[in-house]
Design goal:
heterodimer; A: about 300 residues; mainly alpha; MetI-like fold; 11 helices; about 75% helix; about 0% strand; flat; B: about 270 residues; alpha/beta; Rossmann fold; 2 domains; six-stranded mixed β-sheet; globular
Chain lengths: ~300, ~270
């Protein structure tokens, strides 16, 4: 074949190599295949992990100290069917979630309020900065011990622990969010006739919302940690109490089972906050950070 | 004689600059704007054009001299001022409708009434059907239209515009200039339009004020006796336009050169 071959006569249509349907179908197939593979790999990781644990614990290491998946499963089944030594498992979960939720709400609201106030008032922020830094540097977990002495073994000591943990997580993000508001947007709103309060409500708060919401993810994790640590320090019920009790009786399977339940609760809460975030931030353009959403 | 709507007399604005000295952005600037007049302010980059607008809008007080709007000294934001910023100032978390309605809402107009006004203005800037869209879903030109509607819905008597179309591509910019003239005609609003684009200044304005390189003060004022209504694209090709352009450019050029030299010496 020579390069001088005359072009095909214009009457003959050029070949269509792929139609729109082909392109779409291929894209769809590729994405569903990818999704399936991701799930298969995840499943494989779990099987390998649990399987090797089960095998080593059966033939090699002492399951008394390290427990094994089948024992943990038995313990979970026992808790959910017959209940724990201290009453229904649902009651224990409820106690922990209640403490975490109350503390989370109080801590988050306080964090947003103080964060926005200090974010908008550079003067106040400068005055209080060293105190806030010091309070943040304090290992707040140890406060749990103090709170048990102050507030007793009941709900309030755990709520207090949760509040101090959640507050700082939310506070710093609300502070940054309120401080980084676009100057132009504020000027524009003022020209359009907004009062100070209206600027706060329609510019500063929405602008800080994405900062605040991203902190809530971390904060709910902290809330659960606070509640569990609080219960661990001294309580009459709850998941932390259950774990402390399992530890006291050398029941490793019980410790793991408690951990697993707390993890599931945290994941459910994470999902709830993610949904809330999606709804409140509808206005935001889809960004590259969404791709990393599964990780963060 | 009608008293001027906007009157700057020897207005000076100084800022503390980062390095501990004081930076003079505007020096001894005197100009007036009559009701309904379209004034374009041109000058070299960074000469203090935007500062002039913030003095009139009351966002910043002058360091010396006097700024009067409606015969009264400007202390806070005067009534009836609209301001279109260089960068996008529409609220990204509000839909087009909510954005345009926010001016009336801030001023206490009931919700339904504010929405009706907004719908009307959205249609007038040619965005009917886009009420529910969020700003990120619109193109740059459409966001400018939203900003324009957001400003005009408050029926300003004074419209301050700070290089509003500078970020747009050439065709969109010409389109927006025509839109602006169409919406402005009959509104009776006075406009101060800051730009570095001399074409744009001549095509839009009744009067072009040339500022010196920073600190800015008035160098020359040119009347633009072109007939209205104007068609921006056609206007550019006329002999009259080119003559005006040559005259004003003659005045502006030496300032641009000075600004360039200064920039070069700053770098060196």
């Amino acid at each position: 074949m020579s390069l001088e071959t005359p072009a095909a006569p214009s009457a003959a249509p050029l070949p269509v190599l792929e139609t729109e349907q082909d392109i779409l179908a291929r894209a769809k197939q590729a994405s569903s295949k990818r999704k399936r593979n991701i799930w298969l790999l995840r499943l494989a990781i779990v099987v390998v992990w649990l399987g090797s644990w089960e095998l080593t614990a059966t033939y090699w290491i002492d399951p008394f100290f390290y427990s094994k998946p089948s024992k943990i499963w038995e313990r979970l089944v026992e808790w959910f069917s017959a209940g724990t030594d201290f009453g229904s498992i649902w009651y224990q979960i409820l106690v922990t979630v209640e403490e975490a939720a109350i503390g989370f709400v109080i801590g988050a609201i306080a964090g947003v309020v103080f964060g926005v106030i200090l974010g908008r008032s550079a003067y106040l922020a400068q005055v209080l900065a060293p105190f806030i830094k010091a309070a943040n540097a304090l290992p707040r977990i140890v406060l749990a011990a103090l709170f048990v002495i102050w507030f007793g073994l009941g709900l309030s000591s755990k709520v207090a622990t949760v509040v101090v943990l959640v507050f700082f997580a939310v506070f710093f993000n609300a502070f940054t969010g309120a401080r980084e508001v676009d100057r132009n947007l504020i000027d524009n709103a003022r020209i359009l006739g907004a009062t100070r309060g209206q600027v706060l409500k329609s510019i500063v708060l929405p602008s800080a919302t994405s900062w605040i919401l991203s902190s809530l993810h971390v904060a709910f994790g902290f809330a659960l940690i606070g509640a569990v640590v609080g219960e661990y320090t001294g309580a009459k019920a709850g998941m932390g109490f259950l774990i402390a009790n399992a530890q006291g009786t050398f029941d490793t399977a019980g410790v793991y089972a408690g951990m697993l339940i707390i993890t599931v609760v945290a994941l459910l809460a994470e999902w709830g906050i993610g949904t809330l975030e999606g709804r409140l931030l509808r206005w935001r353009p889809p960004s590259a950070s969404d791709a990393a959403h599964g990780v963060v | 004689m009608v008293p001027p709507l906007i009157e700057l007399t020897g207005a000076t604005k100084r800022f503390p600059s980062g390095s501990g000295s004081v930076h003079t952005a505007v020096r001894d600037l005197t100009m007036t704007v009559q009701p309904g007049e379209f004034v374009a302010v041109v000058g070299p980059t960074g000469c203090g054009k935007s500062t002039t607008l913030s003095l009139v809008s009351g966002l910043q007080p002058p360091s010396a001299g006097r700024v009067r709007v409606n015969g009264e000294d400007v202390k806070s934001i005067p009534d009836g001022v609209g301001y279109m910023f260089q960068t996008d100032a529409v609220m990204p978390w509000r839909s087009v409708l909510e954005n345009v309605a926010s001016g009336p809402r801030f001023r206490g107009v009931p919700k339904a009434e504010a929405r009706a006004q907004a719908v009307d203005w959205i249609a007038r800037v040619g965005l009917a059907g886009f009420e529910k869209y969020y700003p990120h879903q619109l193109s740059g030109g459409m966001r400018k239209r939203v900003a324009l509607a957001q400003t005009l819905v408050t029926k300003p008597k004074i419209l301050l515009m700070d290089e509003p179309f500078s970020a747009l591509d050439v065709q969109t910019r010409a389109l927006m200039q025509d839109e602006l003239l169409r919406l402005w005609s009959g509104s009776g609003a006075a406009v101060i339009f800051v730009t570095h684009d001399l074409d744009e200044a001549i095509a839009l304005a009744d009067k072009v004020v040339v500022l010196t390189t920073g600190p800015a003060t008035v160098k020359d004022v040119f009347e633009i006796p072109l007939d209205r209504p104007r068609k921006v694209e056609e206007l550019r090709l006329t002999e009259e336009f080119r003559k005006l352009y040559a005259d004003i450019w003659e005045s502006l050029r030496s300032e641009v050169d000075k600004a360039r030299e200064k920039g070069a010496s700053n770098v060196a």
